[in-house]
Amino acid sequence: MSPPTDRRRPVARGTYFFLSYAHSAPPPGARADADVWVGQFFADLSDEVRRQARPVAGMRIGFFDQHIPLGADWKAALAEALGDAEVFVPLYSPGYFSRPWALGEQESFRARLTAAGSARLTAGHLTPVLWIPFPPWETHPELDGALDLGRDVPAYAEDGLRAFCMLASYRAQYELLLSRLASRIVHTAERRPLGPSRAPGLDEVVRPGPTDPDFVVAVLAPTRDHLPTDRDPAGYAASGRLWRPYGRRQELPAAEYAASTAERLGLSARTADFAQAAGLLDRRPAVLLVDPWIAASPDAAVILAGMVRGLREWVVPLVVTDDDDNQDASRWATEVTQLLHDAGLPQVKRACSMPEFVDLMPALVTEARRQFLKYGPVVPFEPPPEPVPSLRDGLPPAGSTVTPDPASTPDDPAPMRPHGENR
Q: Residue ranges of the TIR domain (predicted)?
């Protein structure tokens, strides 16, 4: 009798699961993302999937966006990872459904499932998790699938899996649901593999941002045809917003990376040269990326002083240099920093390397937004116009009172939602 054969369809490459989550704004004073518990959960889930799996050669265990190299094109890297993933695991939180970036990841993966066709083939490939519980007034049809993971664990619906990950008192429940989730991932990836296929890029599935953006990334840097004498032209382009301070180590301009950070935090963003951004900077929070070599030209100090005078509190400047650059910019960095201080901007940050630039950006975006909410223009509330009465409906008899329809009675005002991680 011949030995039983493994009927699973071979997978040449791919990833067992893709972890998707809503990025959190870092708290005041912090420099990087506040998603440490997402990282811990990813490590725990990867260990459990690895323990249960029998991967073929070239099959990776898991992916989440902290794996993307610092200088990479984030959106292209995410599309490739989504196209390789067998199971998509979104961590549902109140913030997830208000973040176009997170929803874009989910819609991209769903497009792959639609292209695969058969419901039998695609069942189980999208396995959501309740990460943070939702307030009672907020409902989403997708939540039922997330609750299915732990219907026999009451605290799961009440507190969410993040609390299980954080608190030792939930250790037994955490390990139970972790093992259950890993088992579902392994079963789907090994018994009903999709195989790698194209996933649409985020720009293909996310609706275009509004004409008037939530956030601006402005760049004050020389263009290639207006460089200071003897300055190496590598990294410069026809527009300042295309400046690459770290050269070939970054696939996208620095401004695009900063804009992607704002988008991951739920803000539509636009990049612009500083000279063309004046109107936006007066009414939108912004990060201003400054190349200190802008101060190396004759009379630059006088010109710059006039340019940056009157910048609003919600424009947060970052002086960007490269410690690996053979041409020392420290003199110009000191001069530009002093000019910005003199212009009334006390908090001037400096990034001297790509890791430092990446590490600082979430905090700078959050700080600019915080300053805008504190000092920005107040938009007066205009109530909607009263509806015009229709004679077709008739009028109530004189002296009578109109009893409101209970179904249309407005709800009590909802309490303010506290700010917090993944909210």
A: 18-117
Q: Report the run of H or E that residue 51 belongs to, with start and end.
A: helix 36-52
What's CA 80's distance to the chain center, in Å?
Answer: 17
Q: Residue 178: name the closest of 153, 212, 209 by CA.
A: 153
Beta bridge partners, 331, equal: none
Token representation of residue 300: 């630059």
Kindly list the strands in the beta sheet with 14-20, ordered across the sheet, starting from the edge strand earlier in the chain: 59-63, 14-20, 85-92, 129-130
| Residue 351: how many other CB atoms lie within 10 Å | 23
What gap in Å lies between CA 202 and CA 104, rounded to an integer?
Answer: 5
User: Average per-residue pLDDT in the chain?
Assistant: 83
Burial of 403 (C-beta count, 10 Å sphere; 0-12/13-18/19+):
exposed
Amino acid at 91: L
Domains of the chain by start residue, with CATH: 15-204 (3.40.50), 215-375 (3.40.50)
What is the tens place of the pLDDT at every residue in 258-312?
A: 999 999 998 999 999 998 888 899 999 999 999 999 888 777 777 787 888 888 8
pTM of the model: 0.77
pLDDT value of residue 218: 95
Q: Where are the alpha helices (DSSP H) in 248-353?
A: 254-264, 278-281, 300-308, 330-342
